[in-house]
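Project standup — Tuesday

K.O.: blocked on the structure for the chain from last sprint. Re-posting the sequence here as requested.
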Amino acid sequence: MTLWIATDEAGYGPKLGPLVIVASVWRPGDEGTIENAFESLADPIALGGLSIRVDDSKRLFKRVPVGMPSLIDVITVAASKWCGGVCPRCDLGQWLDGIAAEDCDDLRTVPWYEAIWNAADADRSQAFVDDQTSGQLIQHWGRGGLRMIGLAARVIDPGPFNRHCGAGMNKADILSESTCRLAIQQCQRHLRDGEDAVILSDRHGGRSHYGGLLQHAFPEAILRVISEDRLISRYRLDLPDSPSQIQWTFSVRGDSFAPVAMSSIVAKSTREQLMTRLNRYFADRWARSAYVSKEPLHPTAGYPADADRFLAILERMRLREGIDDDILIRKR
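H.V.: unblocked you, prediction finished:
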């Protein structure tokens, strides 16, 4: 039996909002080969007039009216229920406490996220996926005995992101080290005695060498570099005093593999919900501001050019209300 862990992120490029990294944890069934163990995830299923499949979140994502779940939300809710979690659309605070507890203390101090842990916020997020739809998806995905046994995340908002930068890290370092640590935590939690693990990660920017990072994370392990080229980097870690091995792969377009795509979808859905709260917070204050002009405050996805537009409109209001740029805007 092999434990599989897949990681991916959402929000690496934006200037506003969090960097969300997700690890999904899997046990394939005993039937078939590893090449087809995850085929059920990518196999489309027709539900409620939608054709649903686990695919690259960029291909699946489409903005929907406020209060309606998107396709990535439908998949995320079912994925959470599959591994025993709560519905993220119904109670975002409980969802974050469950998958990203390490970051929740920081998130609770950010004004636009404070309400997430209030009952009123849950009441405003009642567009959820019904149990029947989730159940059908879980049954479809679980053909052949495939199980997703865990979801975990890092939600790194600009405040802690900037603190890391102040300590000398760049955003590639933050992504790689946070991803590595998250995957290791899942190994420690789920790996059984004598079991091997396979960790699959989308490549981090243009980086192709991860040996030093992995050796730092597993200082007592014997690291072997299998291959490092422009498309894929493969490593093997032999764990001390254990027959277990970890095979770790970083590949270009890693999210073309369904388990990585699932992590990408959950990361994207989680980040979108947090961006909804950020936009709602500033829209509410903009509507009450003495500086309201004819220019409407359109929501932002946080990417640099649009973030600059958003920040320029709000500049006077932000200064008047004393909103700290260090917790709003990434330095890098």
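K.O.: great, moving the ticket to review. DSSP finds 14 helices and nine strands in the chain. The two ends are 42 Å apart (CA to CA).
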